[in-house]
Amino acid sequence: MLDHGIPFALTDRVRRIVAPNPGVMTGPGTNTYLLGNEAVAVIDPGPKIESHIDAILDAAGDRIRWIVCTHTHPDHSPAWQRIALETGAETLGGPVVNDRFQDTTFDPQKVLQHDDLLRTDEFTLRAVYTPGHVGNHFCFFLEEDGIMFAGDHIMNGSTVVIIPPSGDMKLYIESLRRMLDYPLQAIAPGHGELMQQPAEAVEWLVNHRLKRETKVVAGLEKLGRSTLDELVKVVYDDVDTSLHKMAKLSMTAHLIKLQQEQRVVAHEGDESWALR
Q1: pTM for this model (two decimals)
Q2: What is the mean pLDDT of residues 97-115?
Q3: What CATH number matches the domain at 8-196, 3.30.428.10, 3.20.20.70, 3.60.15.10, 2.40.50.140?
Q4: Secondary structure of the chain as H, E, C letters
Q5: 64 pLDDT exceeds 90?
C-alpha cells in the first residue's frame, strides 16, 4: 500500500506524495509529483486536504515555482490555491471545461498547448494533449527520465471513467495511441504505483476499450433497441452491479463513438439506442 503524506523518490528528479483520499474512484489516493530539487514543479497538487498540502509544502516549500495540473477534477487540482498563495508559484494547465465534475476554482496563468515545454536546469517537461477522460486533460513527458505523468488518462489497477460530453471515447483511444509516439520508460499514473512496462500498459488499455466496444455492439444485437439501464447489464456483466451507475457513463461514451462512426443510432424520445 502507498503511504500517505510521505515523499517517495522515484528518480533523482522525481518524488511522489500520495493524498489521503483513497476510494473506489481514486485507488490508494491521488498522486502528487514533485519535479526538480532547486526549482520545483508540482504536478497535480491534489485535493484540498490540509494535511496533504502541508506535506507538499514541507517537502519543497519556497522552492516551488510551478503548479502543473493534468486536469481539473476535484481530486487533482484544488490544492493549487493554498500552494500558489504561499509560494507565488505559476499555475499551468488547460482551461476548466463546463461540466458538473470540475474544480471551477482552477485559474491557469499559462493555458497550455500541445508540445509546450517547461525547461529548467534540471528537467524538461513536455505537455502532451490527451483529451478523452475529460476535454482539458494533459499528460506530461519528462524527457530526461522517459516518464509520462498520466493524470487520469491511465490508472494503475483499473480503467478510468469516460464521462460525456467532455469525456470522449474516440479521442481517448486516439490519445492513448499518441502516447506510443514518445520514448516511454515508465508511466506515472494519477493513482497507483509507477508502471514500468508502459507500451504494454497502453496497448492493453486500447485493446480493453475495443473489446468493451465489441460487447456494446453484441449487446445491441442481442437485445435490439435498448435503454442504457438494459444494455449495461449485458455489456458490463463482468462488473459488480454497484458500479453500473458509473459504467453507464463510459458505455454512453462508447455509444457516442459508434454513433460518430454511423454504426448505431440514438432515439432521443425514450433515450434508447439501436444498431443502424
Answers
A1: 0.94
A2: 89
A3: 3.60.15.10
A4: CCCECCCEECCCCEEEEECCCCECCCECCCEEEEECCCCEEEECCCCCCHHHHHHHHHHHHHHEEEEECCCCCCCCCCCHHHHHHHHCCEEEECCCCCCCCCCCCCCCCEECCCCCEEECCCCEEEEEECCCCCCCCEEEEECCCCEEEEECCCCCCCCCCCCCCCCCHHHHHHHHHHHCCCCCCEEEECCCCCECCHHHHHHHHHHHHHHHHHHHHHHHHHHCCEEHHHHHHHHCCCCCHHHHHHHHHHHHHHHHHHHHCCCEEEECCCCEEEEC
A5: yes
